[in-house]
Every structure is written in structure tokens, then in C-alpha cells.
Amino acid sequence: MANNFCWYLPTEIIFGDDALAHLKKKAQKFGKKAFLVTGKNFARKSGLLDEIEFLLGEAEIEVKVFSGAIQDPDTKTCAEGAKICRKAGCDFIIVAGGGSAMDTAKSIAILATNPGRLENYFGAEKAIRPPLPIIAIPTTAGSGSEVTRYAVIVETGSKEKKTITCAGICPRLSLVQPSLTLSLSGFLTASTGVDALSHAVEGALGKRITPLSLAIARDTIKIIKEALPQVIGNLSGLEGREKMSLAAVMAGFVINQTGTVIGHGMGYPLTINYQVQHGTASSFVLPAIFEFLAGKGYRERIMEVTGWEDPATGWRDFCRQIDLPVSLQEVGVKKGDLKKIAKEAVANCQRSMDNLELLLTEKDFYEIYRMSF
Ligand SMILES: [Fe+2]
Predict the structure, then answer these.
(1) Residue-range domain boundaries for the chain
(2) What's the pLDDT at 351?
(3) Ligand 1 midpoint to CA 264 (Å)
(4) How far is the CA of 237 from the centre of ligand 1 (A)?
């Protein structure tokens, strides 16, 4: 554990029933013209887009809407958005959506002020000029992107998921209104919720964990284990939704400080090759990762942070309880593909292996996928 650490979080968080209403006053400090990033449907159909436009109109802020954010955004989509943003001459970005919309907005924020292609900014702190400031309005409870400095983007050519780490893309303001998650389906609620759970667990296993982030991770895990099954049992219950929105923010604090370990990196090839939803993708492999890491000196730590005596079984049972699939074959992964996927995982897990201080081979990754099959 890193006992000497720096904690930096530039995000002002307004959390609660009326969080969105603060947009009118707060946005005025960001400029006169906003670039509003959303997905194709939800924000418009739910009336959220109208509400945001109304609040900005009241604040006399002009808006250019970009409803082109897609799930697992790629470099091409981000470049298109950035072109429109630059042409419109926007001062700041507002994003209303889940993790994918936020990743898109963060990439646009970089390209709006920096030259060249998004690929130039993969890696850590590559931006030359400060990105446009971002206001985030999350509509899921999971990614924690509303408080992180990360954007994960699919490189259009290689089809690999790449991470941009840049303090400048951490939202300056996050308006977290849990009621915005009320219309999420059971599957998306479970999948995004388990994403937040894996952020807290993976973060707590990394070498960059600090006493502060470990304390937050422990509480986050407790909250999610209790609240997520409640929410799945009653999707329209606001109290449970509030707990999950809070837990997602807390898990975001954890990974913003520590990053993830190999669960996320091993999930990326499943999303790319089989379109498995992000949160579910990591959740498939975590039980086998727990078993693998238990043999490498992590047994006590995993038991302690998850609160399960048998963490692999505990995780699978929890996923079953919230109606998520628990094995790769349940989502159509072919056994014959596991070798190819293991090869891709090696590339995806470079940074996270370092966070574990372990060097895993292609054979290790194959074994973990095989155990998850
Ligand atoms: Fe995640």
C-alpha cells in the first residue's frame, strides 16, 4: 500500500434530487456556448435534453447538440464530434449519459483544443493544451467517469480499447441526480452496478491503493452488495438508486487514484469481439482472477475487501442474484476463440499487470478465460 500519496480531484460534485437545477447558475461560469454530448436516444426521449436546453436558455448560454455518442465509442466518432465542436466554437462541454457518452465527451474535449488525431493522446498526460472543461450529468450508476481522469476509446483501425489518462478531462462539475437512473433496465442497472463493484474491488487490489482509497473501496463494496439486489428487486425505488449513484461516484474516486487491475483489461477483448456490455465483461473473469491471485499471495486481501470467505463463489452468487450471466459460454463466447482472446488480453493488461506487480503470460490469461468459460 502506498502510504505516501497525493490525492487530486478537481471535480465539484452536486449530488441529490435537485442536482440538475444547479446547471443554470453553475454553467454561466464556464462560458457562453456549450457543446452538449448525448447518446442517440435516451436524453431526447426521456426529456432530459429538453430540460438541459431549457436551463441553459435561462442562463443565456447557446447550445450545440451532438447526439452521436455510441456504446464503446471509437476514435472516428470522437473525431467527428470534435470537428463539429471546433466549428461551433464552444467554450465548454456538457455530457448527459453513461460511461460511453462521458468517454466520448472527454475525447472531444481534448481534440477541441489540441492538434492531430485522438490516437496521439492515448497514454498518460499527452495533451499539450488544456482540454475544454466538462460538466458531467451521469444517467447510469456505474462507470464513475463523472469523477475520473480516464477515457477508454476503441481505436478504429486496430479495434483495440485504449485508455487516455489526463487530469484535464476530469469533469470540473458533476451533477449527480440519482432519479436520472430510474428508467434504466434491469440488465443495464445490474451490469453498470457490477462495473462499479469491480472498480472498488480491482482498485483495492492494486499496488497504488492508499489508506484513503482503501477506506472508500471497502465502504463502496458494502453499499453495492446490499443496494444492488434491492434495486434489481425494485427498479423504481429511488432510495436504492441513490445508494448506487453514490457508490458509483465512490468507486470512481478509487480508480481515479489507483486504476484497475486485470479484470478490466481482460474484459476489453470480450466487449470488442462479442459486444459484451462493459460491466458484465469484467465480472465474468473476476472469480477466476480471484482464484489465480489467491495462489500469488492475494488470498487474504481479496477475502478482506470482498467480505466473502470464498470470493469466487461469492462473486458468482452475487451476479446470479442480480440476474447477470456468470460464464463466457452463456454469452456465446466460443471455446476455440479463447487463445486469440488471451493474446489480446496480454496487450490490454500491460498497465494493470504493473499495478499488481505480477507478470502474467499468455498461458495465464488463457487459463483464467478457460476457468471463466
Ligand atoms: Fe469499468
Answers:
(1) 12-180, 183-372
(2) 81
(3) 6
(4) 24
CATH number of 183-372: 1.20.1090.10
Give the model's pLDDT for residue 3: 83
Of the pLDDT bands very low, low, confident and very high (cuts 50, 70, 90), residue 371 is: very high
CA distance 196 to 149: 16
Q: How confident is the model at residue 348 (pLDDT cuts 50, 70, 90)?
A: confident
- Other C-beta atoms closer than 10 Å to the C-beta of 222 total 13
In angstroms, what is the span from residue 330 Cα to ligand 1's centroid? 21
Q: Which pLDDT score, from 0 to 100, does residue 350 have?
A: 84
Rounded-to-integer distance, Cα 363 and Cα 134, Å: 41
Give the count of beta carbons closer than 10 Å to the beta carbon of residue 210.
18
Largest CA distance in the chain: 60
Q: How far apart are CA 160 and CA 94, in angstroms?
A: 27
**49-74 residue pLDDT tens:** 999 999 999 999 999 999 999 999 99
Ligand 1 centre distance from Cα of residue 29 (Å): 31
User: How far apart are the CA of 33 and the centre of ligand 1, in A?
Assistant: 31
Examine the pLDDT at 158 and tell me if it is beyond 90.
Answer: no
CA of 71 to the centre of ligand 1 (A): 13
What's the pLDDT at 328? 94
Handedness of CA 190, 194, 323, 274 (dihedral sign): positive
Residue 354's pLDDT band (boundaries 50, 70, 90)?
confident
73 φ, ψ (degrees, to nearest 5)? -60, 145
3-state helix, strand, coil in the chain (%, to 5): 60, 15, 30
Cα distances from 344 to residues 143, 155, 270, 332, 336, in angstroms, run: 23, 14, 10, 18, 14
State the distance from the centre of ligand 1 to the C-alpha of 193, rounded, in angstroms.
10
Distance from Cα 255 to the centre of ligand 1, integer Å: 9
Domain 12-180, CATH number (from 3.40.50.720, 3.30.70.1450, 3.40.50.1970, 3.40.120.10): 3.40.50.1970
